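Worked Example 4.2. Read the sequence first, then its C-alpha cells.
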Amino acid sequence: MSIATLTHAGRAAFALSLSKQPLHIALAQGEPAWDNEDAELPNTVELTALTNEMGRRVPNIVGFVTPDDEGGIVISEGLGSDGAVVTTRYRMVTGPTPYLYMQVAYDLTDAPNGIIRQMGIFVGSTVKEGLPPGQRFFTPDEIDEPGLLLAVEILQPAIPRNPQVRQAVEFVLPV
C-alpha cells in the first residue's frame, strides 16, 4: 500500500479552511538569553505556546498569494551564507492557493514597550466575553482559549516595540 499524496488543490483546500477560522498573530518577549549569538533556542516544532506572550491581534488581511518574482509582497527567508537577506516575492490572488497570506499592523498602544523575540500564528483562539466590540488586540488575560499554535518564529535580532512607530508584519504560510 502506498501513502497518498496531498495535491496542490488539497493544500489550497487546507489554506481555505484555515482562512475561515479565528486567527491571531501574537507577540512575545521570549527569553533575553535568546539575544546571544550562540543562544540555544527551543525546538519550535514542539511548542504549543509562546514564551512571555505580550498579546495577539486579529490580522488586517487574510488571503491567498502565489510566488511571483515581480510580486509586491516580499517575505524574508533569513540570511544566506554570505550574510545577504534572502527573500521570496508573492502576489495576491483571488482564489485559494497553498499559500495563506496574513498581514497585521499593530497599533501604537499594542505592547508599546515590549521587545519582540518571538511571534506566532494561532488558530481557533477565543477571547473572554464582555470585551469592547471591535477590539482587535488582546492581552493574555483577555484570552479565554488560546487555540492552536499554527506557526512560530524566533526573531534574531529581537525587535524593540516603539510607541511612535506602527509596525506591520506579513506572513506567508505554505500549507
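Now turn to a second chain, presented in exactly the same format:
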Amino acid sequence: MKIIDKNGRLTIDKREVDELIAAKNFIGLNHSPRAEKVIVSLTSYKPRILDVKYTIYSLLNQTFPPDLLILWLDEDSFPQREKNLPRDLLELRAFGLTIDWCENLRPYKKLIPALKKFPDDIIVTADDDLFYRPDWLKILYDEHIKNPDCFIAHFCHRMRLDTSGRIYPRENWHPMFKPAIPSPPKFTNSFGTGGGGVLLKRALLYADVLRHDLFMNLSPIDDEAWFWSMAVLNGTKTKIPIGAQNKLIYVDVDTQVNGETLWSVNKTQSDVQLRQIVEHYPALLDILIRETVESKPLISVVAPVKNPANLSACIQNIFWQSFPDFELILVNLGARVNLPPLPTNFRVVNYPGGSIVDALNLGLRKATGDYVLFKDENSILPNDALDLATRAADGSKADVIHFAGHIQLAGNGGNFVADDAPELRRDVPTIFDVPEQLRGVMWLQGKLSRRLGTKIFRRDFLTAHGLTFGNDTTDFMFRALVAAERYLLVPQAFGFFKEAT
C-alpha cells in the first residue's frame, strides 16, 4: 500500500486501507508453536476509537505475526463496553483482535494490565495513532533473540547528563534515530519519546513496576518514564536494532499537528515527572552517571578555539550531532570564559596564549575515542556529520578517512569545493590504492584538500606512527597520507567552512 509524505510527515490513505479491510486482507495471528508467546498490547480512548482500526489492521498484517493482539479499554470511556464501540472495530475480532477491559489507568493501560495477565510472555507495546510497517515486529523480535536481557526499541532518545550530574531537559536529549552501526545497549537510551514500539518482558522490570500507588503519584501521565526507570533499576538496558524504523507513519497527520496527543499533553510535564521518579529512586542517577563516565566514545572531536566569542557556537554545533557516542575536547586559547554546566562528554581545556598546533597536540593527547576529528574554529558540521563519519569508519576500518570536499561559505550561500584527484570522482567510498609516492605527488600538485577538518584519523594509527603536529597542520596530513595502509576516499562534502575573521 502507498505511504504518503505530507509536509515531511508520513501517513496513509485511509480509503485504501478501508478497501483492504473490506476485502478481509489479513495475515492475522501466529498459530505455530513458539518457545515464547509474543503479545502486542495497545490502548485507546474515545477521541481515537474511530481510527484505531487502521493501527489494528497494520498489526494484523505483520510478516512475523503476534500470538495475541490486545486492545485495552476502560469503562470510564466506554460505559456500555462493546455497545459503545464502532462496528468495524468489533469485526476485527474475527481476524485476531482481542478487546479486553481494565480500570482507567490512563496511558498505563497499554502495559500494566498485560504485565499482570501475561507475566512470563514477551510483550510489545504499540500506539493507537500509528500505522506499522509489515516487518515492524520481526525487527524487534530478531533483536530480542540476540539480546534477550534488553528492552528492544525502534525509537529512542539518548539522555544527557551535565557535569554536575543533572539530567538535561528532554528537548536537549540526543535524537537516537536509526543507528549507523551496531549500537550497544544503554541505560541512557530512553524510549519515552514516541510510539515506535518497545519489546520487553516482566522479568526485565524492577519489582515496583505494578505499584499503582507509586506510578500514579510520581508520573501519572508519563508511563514511558516509569517503565524506563523500572528497567534501569532492574539492570536492564535498551537496545536499538540496526533496522530500527524511526520514521513513524501516522494514521492522521492533522491530529498530530493540530490536535491533542499524549505527547502534546506530556511534553510540559515530562521533565517534572522524570525528576520526581529520580528523586524517589536516587539509585537511578548513580547508574546513569556510572554508565556515562565509563562509556568510551567512538569519535573524539578536538576543537581549538582562539576567539572566546566562538566557544558557545562550537559547543552548540557539536551538542546537536545526531550520533551520540563522541566526546568534545574544546581547547580554549583565549581568555577564560564562564560556561554553563556542559554534558559529561564535553571537556573544556583552557590554554590561554597557546598556538593552534599546541592545542591540537594537547587535544590529541587527551582524546580517548577510536577516531579523531580536528574541527576548525570556522567550520560548521551538519547535524549528521559524526553519523556519516561513523558509517565510513565502521565499514572500512581505515587509518584515515578523507572526504572529497567541503562547502565554502560566502555571503548568504556557499559553493562545493571538491578535491581534484580522479579517485575522488567515484560514486562510492574507495580505498586509495595508488603507491605512497604517487599519493605524495598528488598532494604536492594540490589535487588533495589540505583542510584538516575534512579528514578523520584512527587514533591507534596516529600513536603507532608517532604522528603529532609540528609547525603546521599540512605536514601532519602529508605524513598521515603516505603512512596509512588504508586511506579511504569518500566522494562527499564534509562540513561548511568560512574564512577566519
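Notes for the reader: The chain has two domains: 3-289, 296-497. The two ends are 54 Å apart (CA to CA).
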